[in-house]
Amino acid sequence: MLLTWVLLRAQRDIVQHFMQAGATAADSARTTEALGLKPGIAWHQLVGHAVLRCPGEGHYYLDLANWERLRLQRRRHTWMVGVAVLVLLALLFWLRAAA
């Protein structure tokens, strides 16, 4: 759980760097050095989700639409897990009361 939180926080920090630099389109792509970033696990996850795009020559830009899509997908998954936990707890209490 802690590792997940750390990675999500690192991803948000990376996205903030791109937004502050205005690197949100292919023509404004920047290198990691120009952004003061060092690629790591969080970086590679964002590249894998096509949130960070590489138009070439080691330059990257933030795909805002894919970032929002990823955030929405994560929120949806969180809600589904929460509902599933509540259903399982209700079932557990119901089974204990019936026994």
TrEMBL record:
Lineage: superkingdom: Bacteria
Annotated TM spans: 79-97
Keywords, comma-separated and alphabetical: Membrane, Transmembrane, Transmembrane helix
Species, as recorded: Dyella koreensis
Protein name according to UniProt: Uncharacterized protein
Keyword Transmembrane helix applies: yes
Keyword Transmembrane helix attributed: yes
